[in-house]
Amino acid sequence: MKPLFAILCAAASLSAKADVQYQMTITDPAHHLAQVEMTQAKGAGKVDLMMPAWRTGRYQILDQADTLRAVTASIDGQPVAIEKIDKSTWRVMAEQSGTLKVSYQLYANRLGERLHHIDDSHAFIDASGAFLYSSATRQQPVTVALSVPKDWRSASGMEKTGEHSFKAANYDVLIDSPIETGIHQDYAFGAGGKDYQLVIWGDGNYQGQQMADDLKKMVTASQAIWQGYPFDRYLFMVHATSGERGATEHLNSTIIQTSRYNFAPREAYLRFLGTAAHEFVHTWNVKAYRGEGLVPYDYQHENYATLLWLAEGSTSYFQNQLLLRAGLMKPEEYFKVLAGSIKAYRANPGRFSQSVSQASFDSWIEKGGDYGHNFSVNIYSEGALVSWLLDADLLKTTANKVSYRDLHQRLYAKHRIPETFNDQTLLDELKSLSGKDYSAFWAKKVKAPPGDIDFDALLDQFGLKLNAGDQALFTGLTLDDKGAVLGVEKDSPAWQAGLSDGDILVALDGLRLVPGTLEERLKAHKAGDKVKLTLFRRDALQSLEVTLGERPAEYKVVPVKHPSRAQKVAFKAWLGIDLPAPDANKA
After folding, report:
1. Which strand ranges, in their side-by-side order, compose the sheet holding 98-107?
2. Structure pTM?
3. CB-based contacts of 378: which residues, under 8 Å, 6+ apart?
4. Contacts of 538 (CB under 8 A, 6+ apart)
5. DSSP state, 377?
6. Fewest CB within a 10 Å sphere: which of 136, 308, 313, 412?
């Protein structure tokens, strides 16, 4: 039997090593390689170490463990057996306690998935694609140290403990705090008593200081929705790339990837700012509070949830409102985005087939494409429109005293993680805020396909109207640059004629059809004309007759000529600015 003093000393020794430590050394940047060492205290018995199967902010199984090689383990410096027991789990077979060290090679070349990327200019590391974890130590403090080439600089939303080292409260914070290290441009600013940093990797047609100045205006506008911030410091990471696109929200930061030449002209720059605003809104809506099914995260399996439309759709709804309130977007530019959303919605047959609730649940298997367009809705775009409908109804019901912003502030104030909420919670909060029972709305627009929306009535509430542009010929076809059919809109002329995705168009009315010229060739026709499309299907040549249709080429949202006082008040309560005069709209 060991003396009590010896037992206490051993316990103290293990406690002192309770932090989980990660050391990453960039070994071969030209070939995207790094060596990772993970050190943690191990109790008696075998221990399983896992690589997450997906990453936060992307609801898709990514099978991230395939980039790990040569995994070895030791306890107190002595090698021990470690075996892979499933696609993303390694089991340390040794039973004894002590200091466990696990080493492995990481191949980091999944930039577009925003998992990791190492080259001779930088390394981007999302912990979900780089660092193993065990259930037993998931909630223990974490430290990360990097060994990188000279002249590289390191940044993360985590607390910095050295030039290239960081610490986090636990693995959940680590996995939501990606690291950008390398050669980049760096800008710092303060707003609302919080510290911000903008880090840009890659050259492009951007103006870094202007970006920082505009982001400062945008982040301040967030307080029109929430009271307070869920962070003390926030990091904007921007990758100016040649091909990757997309962005992901994180607990204290965001990573935005866009073409290096996509920061100008103004319309492109506004898209960048809109993306930054979207990810920043997520700092509250998803990272501070999120719906049932997503709390806590299960990194090894899908987190099924029916409220992703609120997570993503509400965020899409608010993003441009932040730019508008910050003075970064003009009213006519906001109206143009709104008109584009209406046009896209009316062109989506899936609005009659799937609810935003079901689309949320199916996000893990959503593939887009022909079936996705014709029989489903999108948690971003349709979720934003359902959010708008709810906002408008709240404003109307409460004589403009309560808006959708108040619901989100209530979620932030009362249902922050580790608490969560569900449909009934939202209905209870809506009734508490407005005095109205929203069960009928929920059944019709959330749990059922949203169907047609009366945009005329919706816009009229705020002193706006929808103008349809000139009619344009319509086939319902989406083609790639080689003339192959990517999609056929349900019930469109092409659908009725029997065209299908995969068909390869080769001729129109008996004459060769050069890829990319169908629209130009059809200008010689009018709606109601019949044309013959010749195509290859399964390598066999055949022809189909299509009767051309038409629909508006575009829509415009504009102020009404003589708005009432009620409309002006409603508009101000909705967007926080005055309703522009009709002649001020240049859209």
Report:
1. 78-80, 68-75, 98-107, 33-42, 20-28, 142-147, 165-168, 159-162
2. 0.93
3. 348, 359
4. none
5. -
6. 136
